[in-house]
Amino acid sequence: MLVAERYAKIIRLVNERGSIRVSELSELCGVTEETIRRDLDRLEQTGKLERSHGGAMSVKDAQAEIPYFEREVMNAAEKKRIAAEAVGQIEPYSKIALDASTTAYYMAAELPNIPLTVLTNSIKVALELAGKEKIQVFSTGGILSPRSLSYQGPLAESNLEQYHVNKAFISGKGIHPERGISESSELQAAVKRKMIGLADEVYLLVDYSKFGVRAFSHIADCEQIDHLITDDRADPEVLRILTGQGIKVTISH
After folding, report:
1. 83-123 pLDDT, tens digit each
2. Which residues of the chain form beta strands (DSSP E)?
């Protein structure tokens, strides 16, 4: 494979997956990890991608919020396993917050019809829970975002300040040991920051593709997260660092 062909393949893989690790690129391209690291450095210099911890991420990913119906099918198997693990952390009569992530929607679908109070800014989550009569749903209201099918903006943020929950379940575009939790949309990040602030315990739900990614808007430092639920493809080095920061890590299978 010529160097130019390898560059093109790397760019295509990064854009298709959103982010990818050096080890995967090395295997897929049939070259050493050191060669891949040099390739990624050159491609970052030309603006084709962005380097992340242990790999690279798409520059397209970092600039715009992906529409909900596209996110719904991205890494769906991993997200459903993570969601099922998260549901196992919920006890009857709890008060919980669910953000507008696709993983939160999968949680809503998985939740049994038990006495619960759910606070959410997601239209999809609210509609999914509407048929479960034992679950009381509170919607934040606010400005409707057609891309994420959620409410955001000053009204959503101020309404969240009126509540307290036992547990908040949030996701994000990226988790990075130094950068923390981040999101592509500042408005979505602001809502998630409010949810973190009103919860006794905070659960971060992210699949392997989010590791090492630094998205546009900062949500929280890693130390503000109590629990991380991810899948078995997550970067073990990042998991080691996060565990050292006091975060309880659960791997879904």
Report:
1. 999 999 999 999 999 999 999 999 999 999 999 999 999 99
2. 19-21, 50-52, 55-57, 95-98, 116-120, 135-139, 143-145, 150-152, 165-170, 174-176, 180-183, 199-205, 217-220, 227-231, 248-252
